[in-house]
């Protein structure tokens, strides 16, 4: 069983390498903001390559939705596309491409392959499709619940154009995808990665026979008693309670109940704040259920020290109780752009806090966007750029926090300075560690970073970030990490603190300086290990 688990994992990883090689997107080729996975015929996770933790366990929601939606109408040569949170998506820029793997006769679906990648722009009210002020989901770009992007082997570009360019522009203040051909090449690269996976699965079946492979795909489960014991060993008692707050005061409340008899764990989020919806200027940090599920799975993989692959076996013992209409299970039309970059990070902090494993991390992905809208009248249309910026991780009982790292739910990279400046009209003025931002303690929290970008032409810029109000907490006497700060340095010398979530129209010569939070310290400070 272990041999096949590793073979399936190897196939998912090769899918990822194929996607990176064939993509032209900086998000996928440079930043590695994608994930690839294999699923059983009923949508159970067989193998998920360890790419982006935010996508762990969440793609299964999308795959199962497509299976149910197209049941009885799935043929060899079909490939499906989806990004809607209501259909298992995370936020709209994350496009998921799903392909069936048929038997030799083309009659039975044996597996599914899937790839999810963050596209730099999918339309909406601002370039980059990560608006700071969206109230409803249609403001964030194209919404695709389901589409046969490839039917009978033919790529449906006209259908895609209607969905990504024409449909979003019908909403007030919105545009369609600003770099449609980039979306086309990205989706084709994802479909090619899936095909790579399909071919490798076919080779595996040829090597071991269909019967052997189908028997071996059942995910290995950790024995129930082992699962509960290892969780409880992290903290005495079966009932763990914690809460934390987003910068606007929204609450995430968690109670964990571990059942030693069944080997299961209930993650109960009853008492979490209601969804942010329409009522305020900024209310897009709702996190769809698939995102919440991914946060739980990622954290359990960190907590439980056991050799178990990233598949359905590590999902089965977990039951998530999430109130309808809450911040973690919003309604279909709620804005969600920031939920997959801010709220999921806070969710992880809450779970780790419940087990008292380590201090808080920087608590957000610091989502930074810039670009031009089509209405700006530039030759060749608009464009969008997106990146996440590292911060400090929290210290623990025997470790110093990591400096300048994409921790927890992001596992991406920052775009190389040379690539950034060659492809976009900006200059990178500074990218450095933020000395002194890590919380002091017996073990110091990791330092955040300073990133300053100068704009060479007038354009739109935006930031979605957290921990600008509440500091990343320390633990067991450790001190909190420094808050983050976002500054707009205008060319006339004016300095503006834009807050945690902002959209600006910047002029040539303006700069944006983003200082990310440090991680919290662990233990009472005596002389901090890992000093600056």
Automatic annotation (TrEMBL):
Enzyme nomenclature, EC number: 3.5.2.9
Domain Hydantoinase B/oxoprolinase intervals: 3-525
Source organism, top-level taxon: Eukaryota
Entry keywords, A to Z: Hydrolase
GO molecular function, one term: 5-oxoprolinase (ATP-hydrolyzing) activity
A biological process term (GO) from this entry: glutathione metabolic process
Gene Ontology CC terms, in alphabetical order: cytosol
Uppermost EC category: hydrolase
Name by which UniProt lists this protein: 5-oxoprolinase (ATP-hydrolyzing)
UniProt lineage: Eukaryota, Fungi, Dikarya, Ascomycota, Pezizomycotina
């Amino acid at each position: 069983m272990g041999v096949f688990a590793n073979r399936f994992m190897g196939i998912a990883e090769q899918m990822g390498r194929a996607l990176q090689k064939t993509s032209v997107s900086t998000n996928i080729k440079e930043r590695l903001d994608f994930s690839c996975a294999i699923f059983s015929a009923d949508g159970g996770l067989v193998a998920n390559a360890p790419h982006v933790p935010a996508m762990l366990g969440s793609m299964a929601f999308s795959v199962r939705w497509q299976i149910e939606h197209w049941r009885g109408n799935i043929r060899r040569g079909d490939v499906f596309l989806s990004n809607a949170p209501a259909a298992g998506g995370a936020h709209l820029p994350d496009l998921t491409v799903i392909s069936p793997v048929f038997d030799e006769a083309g009659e039975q679906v044996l597996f599914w392959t899937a790839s999810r990648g963050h596209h730099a722009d999918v339309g909406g009210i601002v370039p980059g499709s990560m608006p700071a002020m969206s109230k409803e989901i249609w403001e964030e770009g194209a919404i695709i619940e389901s589409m046969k992007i490839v039917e009978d082997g033919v790529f449906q570009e006209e259908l895609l154009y209607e969905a990504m360019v024409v449909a979003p522009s019908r909403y007030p203040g919105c545009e369609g995808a600003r770099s449609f051909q980039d979306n086309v090449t990205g989706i084709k690269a994802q479909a090619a990665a899936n095909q790579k996976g399909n071919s490798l699965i076919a080779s595996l079946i040829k090597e071991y026979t269909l019967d052997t492979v189908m028997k071996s795909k059942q995910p290995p489960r950790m024995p129930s008693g082992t699962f509960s014991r290892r969780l409880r060993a992290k903290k005495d008692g079966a009932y763990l309670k914690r809460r934390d707050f987003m910068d606007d005061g929204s609450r995430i409340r968690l109670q964990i109940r571990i059942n030693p008899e069944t080997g299961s764990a209930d993650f109960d989020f009853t008492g979490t704040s209601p969804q942010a919806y329409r009522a305020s200027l900024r209310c897009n940090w709702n996190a769809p259920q698939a995102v919440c599920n991914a946060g739980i799975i990622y954290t359990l993989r960190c907590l439980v020290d056991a050799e178990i692959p990233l598949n359905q076996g590590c999902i089965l013992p977990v039951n998530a109780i999430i109130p309808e209409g809450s911040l973690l299970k919003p309604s279909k039309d709620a804005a969600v752009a920031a939920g997959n970059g801010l709220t999921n990070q806070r969710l992880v902090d809450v779970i780790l806090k419940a087990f008292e494993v380590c201090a808080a991390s920087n608590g957000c992905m610091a989502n930074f966007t810039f670009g031009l809208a089509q209405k700006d009248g530039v030759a060749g249309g608009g464009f969008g750029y997106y990146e996440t910026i590292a911060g400090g991780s929290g210290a623990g009982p025997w470790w110093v926090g990591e400096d300048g790292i994409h921790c927890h739910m992001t596992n991406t990279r920052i775009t190389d300075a040379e690539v950034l400046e060659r492809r976009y009209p900006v200059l990178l003025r500074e990218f450095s560690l933020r000395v002194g931002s890590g919380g002091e303690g017996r073990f110091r929290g990791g330092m955040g970073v300073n990133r300053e970008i100068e704009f060479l032409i007038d354009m739109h810029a935006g930031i979605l970030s957290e921990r600008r109000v509440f500091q990343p907490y320390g633990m067991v006497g450790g001190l909190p990490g420094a808050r983050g700060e976002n500054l707009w340095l205008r060319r006339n010398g004016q300095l503006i603190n834009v807050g945690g979530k902002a959209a600006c129209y910047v002029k040539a010569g303006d700069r944006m300086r983003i200082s990310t939070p440090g991680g919290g310290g662990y233990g009472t400070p005596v002389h901090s290990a890992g000093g600056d």
